[in-house]
Write a structure and sequence with these properties.
The protein has 325 residues and is mostly beta strands. The chain has one helix and 25 strands. The strands form six sheets. It has a five-stranded antiparallel β-sheet with strand order 1-24-23-22-25, with no helix packed on it. The longest helix is centred in the last third of the chain and has 4 residues, at 309-312.
Length: 325
């Protein structure tokens, strides 16, 4: 089993985020605050080359943020409850991993229970609301199904009730449970060939790699152990580095193909880092969410991002990210 080795923590350098108009967040060189005031931000995902979608868990809403400077975010739609992860399908449908307000109280008056929701042509519908507990992160897999993590609770500091990894087929409506007995399953991402699946277990402080077989995902012995914080959203870059949002560690970490932690960005005390995705020209930017100030950050990527499976099938849309929640 390959596990991460800890490197010394170094604070981000460059322009600090703490100004009269923004929260006190340390930014790496070239980074900037893209947006603030959006509540408990999570689930970043690009919506075409010029916009970013993020969820606001405590507001029960999804926001669309222009990537160009000087433009204000807008409410994309209100879905109620606690929207967490997002995935955009090949036809533009936005899928929402909806925890139903089980993670925290929602300010939205729109009723929502744990489910998979979909937003298409200006209409919000419930695609799946049976056989799930509290959907967290999601991604369209190489098979065209929506793969999502489904924790039974949100215990971070100790192992809680067992969670699951599931997939749902939008074409047939079939729901399949692949893994059980998971400790707060959270971030999820597919590797470059589509046969590798990376899965974060928040309370275990690990990310495990699985190989897709005829009988489902099987752990292949690769594991990254999180030295600082607890893993939340994850994403892969084109160099094979796995990027992990460290939540309670107020950090972003990268693990090389051997499982060694090779890079870390410390955003400063009190900055809960919930998720990330790649986007921008050539997938050259990392977009990072933190509920501190309801903030979305943009920082230069060390390597271009790995396109999501749905975009690889369409020829590698260069404006599409690989990310998670």
């Amino acid at each position: 089993m390959n596990t991460a080795t800890s490197l010394p923590r170094t604070p981000a350098s460059g322009t600090p985020g703490g100004t009269s108009s923004g929260p006190d967040i340390r930014l790496p060189q070239g980074g900037r605050i893209l947006s603030t005031g959006l509540g408990f931000t999570e689930g970043p995902c690009t919506d075409g080359p010029g916009h970013l979608l993020v969820t606001s868990i405590n507001r029960g809403s999804v926001y669309r943020i222009p990537l160009e400077s000087g433009q204000e975010p807008e409410l994309a739609f209100e879905c109620g409850g606690g929207p967490n992860g997002l995935a955009v399908g090949p036809n533009g449908t936005i899928f929402v991993a909806q925890n139903g307000g089980t993670a925290m109280a929602s300010k939205s008056q729109v009723p929502a229970k744990p489910s998979i929701q979909q937003w298409q042509n200006g209409n919000l519908t419930v695609a799946l609301d049976t056989g799930v507990s509290a959907p967290s992160d999601c991604v369209i897999g190489p098979d065209g199904c929506l793969w999502f993590t489904d924790p039974a609770d949100h215990e971070i500091f100790q192992r809680g009730a067992p969670g699951h990894l599931r997939s749902w087929n939008p074409a047939t409506g079939e729901l399949h449970t692949w893994l059980t007995e998971l400790a707060f399953p959270n971030g999820i991402a597919f590797g470059p060939t589509g046969t590798e699946l990376y899965l974060a277990e928040t309370s275990l402080r690990t990310v495990t790699r699985y190989q897709m077989t005829d009988t489902g995902p099987e752990a292949d012995g690769w594991m990254a152990t999180i030295p600082h914080g607890h893993p939340d959203g994850i994403a892969l870059d084109a160099a094979g580095w796995l990027w992990v949002a460290g939540s309670t560690g107020h950090n972003l970490m990268a693990f090389d193909p051997t499982g060694r932690m090779c890079h870390e960005i410390d955003f400063g005390p009190g900055v809960l880092v919930t998720s990330l995705c790649f986007g921008g020209p050539g997938l050259s930017r990392l977009y990072v969410t933190t509920p501190k100030g309801g903030t979305v950050l943009e920082i230069p990527a060390l390597h271009p991002g790995l396109p999501l499976p749905v975009h690889r099938q369409r020829g590698g849309n260069i404006g599409s990210p690989d990310g998670g929640s």
